[in-house]
Amino acid sequence: MNGKQAAGYLAAEWVKDGMTVGLGTGSTAYFTIEKLGERVAEGLKITAIATSEASEELALKYNIPLLKASEVDKLDIAIDGADELDSQLNLIKGGGAALLREKLVALHSDQFIVVADGSKVVDQLGAFKLPIEVVPFCYEWTLHTLRESYPVPFEVRMKGQDIVVTDNGNYIIDASFGRIESPQQLADELKMITGVVDHGLFIGIAAKAVVGYEDGRTEIIEGNLK
Ligand SMILES: O=C[C@H](O)[C@H](O)[C@H](O)COP(=O)(O)O
């Protein structure tokens, strides 16, 4: 068992009968969805909302019943991966371009649980490039505003020759901050820029993290949410 699997599986055990569940995106959330699928096959009764088209497909494959947002106001729990997490459970997410749906789902869940392997735990956020989701219209201007605002490299995310398009039809600009001294301040500032839809900083949202290690061990980090 690798760290991602250990973390993803353990968090899936916290889901109880009758819960509505937010299904995360990525290679760690994959294991949570897989385990939930196994539990559903054994009789667990849940409903879910997926944070990406990829996770929706996975849920359908595992016969996890999916809901539309119009059918539910709030989720009981959401379980999702992260690209970086610090000891305060501040996160960088969006390495897989799913940050916007992930943040919406996390913010509408009673409990947001992070699943990650040990390599994701950092002293300070920022080594991982911060994904910023922007509208395609005049995105060059948004890129220019970002470059004028922060003296760090920004790049539009590409796949080969093509600009990556998110499930919401937007683009991603990755920012190489290196170290983010004040995540909350940066999060607030980025949200104020016209053209920016959202960004991968998740501050004060996670209740708990399950960190998994190569040997199958897991560690729980408790957040300090009130
Ligand atoms: O956009 C993608 C998500 O934020 C993922 O949850 C994040 O990138 C972590 O993915 P993984 O578990 O594959 O490292």
TrEMBL record:
Entry-linked Pfam families: Rib_5-P_isom_A
Keywords: Isomerase
Active site per the UniProt annotation: E102
Record-level GO cellular component terms: cytosol
Pathway the protein takes part in: Carbohydrate degradation; pentose phosphate pathway; D-ribose 5-phosphate from D-ribulose 5-phosphate (non-oxidative stage): step 1/1
Reactions that this protein is recorded to catalyse: aldehydo-D-ribose 5-phosphate = D-ribulose 5-phosphate
EC number: 5.3.1.6
GO molecular function, one term: ribose-5-phosphate isomerase activity
Oligomer status and interactors: Homodimer.
General function of this protein: Catalyzes the reversible conversion of ribose-5-phosphate to ribulose 5-phosphate.
Protein name: Ribose-5-phosphate isomerase A
